[in-house]
Amino acid sequence: MELREEAINILKQKLGVEEAYTLLDYIETRVRTDVSTQKDIFELKLEIERVRAEVEKFRADLQSEIEKVRAELKTDIGKVQTNMIKWNFGFWITQFAALIGILFKLLG
């Protein structure tokens, strides 16, 4: 015998036929709703874990990209510093040569 029919037979003896069916329908509806809610919660947890994994991957990718940009910036800054030192020496040498030229002109 099916479980539903067993429950109906037990409830019929205490409540009557119509009340037994009504009560059993209510219980089945409630259980389905609760199971559905639990299923929804489980699916939501899975979705949260999936999103968390995507965010973590995005964060790791972003961190990697930041490190690459940082390394490129250090290289560029080094090149700019070298270039500035070279131009400073060129300027100083030119100024020194001009000063020497002026001194030779005045003294010679």
Short description, anyone?
By secondary structure, the protein is mainly alpha-helical. It has helices at 3-15, 17-107.
Description of the structure:
Helices cover 96% and strands 0% of the residues. With 108 residues, it is mainly α. The radius of gyration is 43 Å and the shape is rod-shaped.
Summarize the SSE layout with pairings:
Blueprint: H1 3-15, H2 17-107
Supply database-style keywords:
mainly alpha; about 110 residues; 2 helices
Q: What is the 3D form? A: rod-shaped
* Largest sheet, strands/sense/barrel: none
* Helical run tally: 2
Determine the strand fraction and express it as a percent band.
under 5%
Mean pLDDT: 87
Number of strands: 0
Task: Extract low-pLDDT stretches.
Answer: none
Q: Which H/E pattern describes the elements? A: HH
Radius of gyration: 43 Å
Question: What's the end-to-end separation, in Å?
Answer: 129 Å
Q: Helix/strand-derived class? A: mainly alpha
Helix content: over 70%
